[in-house]
Amino acid sequence: MKELVEIKDLKRSFAGKKALDGMSFSLGTGKIVGLLGENGAGKTTLMRVMAGLLTKDSGSVRIDGEEIGAKTNGLISYVPDHFVFGGFRKIGTVVTYMKRIFSDFDEKKAEALLEKLHFTKEQKMASMSKGQKAQVQLVLFMSRKAKLFLLDEPLAAVDPATREFIIKTILSTFGEDNTVLISTHVVMDVELILDEVIMIKNGHVHLQGETDELREKYGKTINEIFKDEFRFVEGGSENE
Amino acid sequence: MSDMVINNRKNGSRLGLERFILDIKKYRLLGIILPVILLIPSVIIQVLWIRYDKIVIKYGIDTSLGNGRLLDPEKITSGERRIIRILEYVLDEPPLVRGVLWAFTLVLILLVVCQIADMFKSFFGSNSALVLAAPCSKPILFVSKFLAASVTSFISIWCSQVQWVFIEGGLKWDGSSLNIMSFRTFRGIESNSDLSLDLNWVSVLDIFAIFLLLWLGVFTILAISGKIQKAFKTPVMVAVAIVIAIALSWAFVHSMELQSEVNTLPLLFMIPCILFLADILLISKYDAVTV
Amino acid sequence: MPWAFKENRPIFQQIYDTIVVRILNGTYPKGEKLPSVREMAEEAGVNPNTMQRAMSNLESAGLAVTNRTSGRIVTSDEELLKKIKKEYALEAAKEFMQEMQELGLSQKDAKALLDEAEAMGK
């Protein structure tokens, strides 16, 4: 069977520093997958390569059997860790933009979710707090009917209420025909919603497995496994 | 399979068009609305010239005599006297002309600065993750942006040229028809100056060509910083590349200016070549930068 | 009983236990329809696949029956419910006794303690 994501021996370096050093893994459809790793492990680089924002040095990346390009952009909804709607004045303008650029954008869903959060179309971007911006951005990108969602640190620097909303939004968007890849270095936040985890370190996959299997095998929570794996093998990396 | 390819291509060009419209909208104030508004003074002056000509015909004034040539000042109404005064005396005072010209220069500079800033924000800045996520190829996105910038700067330049001609000179009304090619300078004295030549497409294209060269500079900047970016992910290196590229493109434009005549046609033919070069160097294979 | 996940056991097992307790205490009344997998997953903040797995186990245990027209129904099998209630209660009691033993209390003292705790609770 064709996997949704197939990455083989992916390499990418910046000024001699290897950000991705022979990364290989594959992902099926209908899963929520955690991409776990310390800061600097290569999570963002990997997502940016998959989203077509960075080029690879070598190796192969296939999404639904396709090389990264215009076609895979149509399958992937990438939610970056920074706010990208800065150039827009109002929420309504962004909604129109999304509808025009992405044919899979579900305007009704976006509007319903925005209403749930008590946002109006007239609301100005500049008047929003950081947490509100993160919510709006997530809602807009999650309202695409994409096959693969790439969420880069969606839970970093948001308050607990926002965190809960984000988790619920992810759960409500997720379905049998898509896969959600969430990168984070705070495992506890997402442990319960993950089917699978990929732990990456120094630019390659350190450990990949089903959440429940790993919990059974190690007799620990994923959070504990993560902490142990990164503490013992590479002392001091958690101080980063 | 081939249907899918065609669909993708259709989708690509549709998105290119969307991108183009979005950018035209973005630049509409500096590229269309303000230049058109700035045309108003020259339009008003043309209307005044026509009324002036009517007065001249009405009273049989001999305009070749220069100042104080009115045959029978008593018969002329105060309104008519005012028009004559404006056109023969006041308009000669440069503030209006100079003001409008300055305003135009400012608008053009702002337009170029905005376009270049927008280009960087879209392809390298915080917006890149949104702009480049569009499901169409990067060259299409880039060309759409380029076309939108070209169209708006062309409109802006054309307006400034038209305004330049019509604020300094005037149309001649001979009683039955307007003679566009007959111009006069201030004080109402008809002249066979070269002003009429300025209302020629060539003069617009000359300036437009300089704009395109500026864009060549932008391409160079993108290409160089894209290449450097692959090796060094540091904002400093990108900044250095930008400075180098600006210097290069400035030198290029300057050397073009030094030549007595800029040949526009070959420059226009350069556009596809530039796009091709930019594509090879950069567009389809480069990194978006977040600084 | 709220959704709480603390132990290192697989999450689907913990979900399973929580649902069973909810059935036993009548939160999900017998013979009535259970919320959908998606609803329950969202409420618990867990992956729908995990919730699905817990639900499947619920069905294998006979505690829930899937009905083509009305979805997933809590069993009305009194015997089965009684039996499972006993199992869970026994398990909890065993745990209690073991803890008391660890504290060095005799079985008799431990039983007496239960009465004391009950009196305090009132």
Task: Provide the fold topology.
The complex is a heterotrimer of chains A (240), B (291) and C (122).
Chain A: E1 5-14, E2 17-27, E3 32-36, H1 43-50, E4 58-63, E5 66-67, H2 70-73, E6 76-79, H3 91-101, H4 107-116, H5 130-142, E7 148-152, H6 160-173, E8 179-184, E9 196-201, E10 204-210, H7 211-218, H8 222-233
Helix pairs in contact in A: 5-6
Chain B: H1 2-37, H2 40-59, H3 78-88, H4 95-123, H5 128-131, H6 138-168, E1 172-173, E2 178-179, H7 195-198, H8 201-231, H9 235-258, H10 264-283
Chain C: H1 11-24, H2 37-44, H3 48-60, E1 64-67, E2 71-74, H4 78-102, H5 107-121
Your description of this structure?
The complex is a heterotrimer of chains A (240), B (291) and C (122). Residues 233-240 of chain A have low confidence and may be disordered. Chain A has 8 helices and 10 strands. In chain A, helix 5 packs parallel to helix 6 (160-173). By secondary structure, chain A is α/β, with parallel strands linked by helices. Chain B is mainly α and 291 residues long. Chain B has a two-stranded antiparallel sheet with strand order 1-2. In chain B, a hairpin with a 4-residue loop joins strand 1 (172-173) and strand 2. In chain B, helix 6 (138-168) packs antiparallel against helix 8. With 122 residues, chain C is mainly α. The interface between A and B is medium-sized, with 28 and 28 residues.
Short description, anyone?
Chain A has helices at residues 43-50, 70-73, 91-101, 107-116, 130-142, 160-173, 211-218, 222-233, and strands at 5-14, 17-27, 32-36, 58-63, 66-67, 76-79, 148-152, 179-184, 196-201, 204-210. Chain A has 240 residues and is α/β, with parallel strands linked by helices.
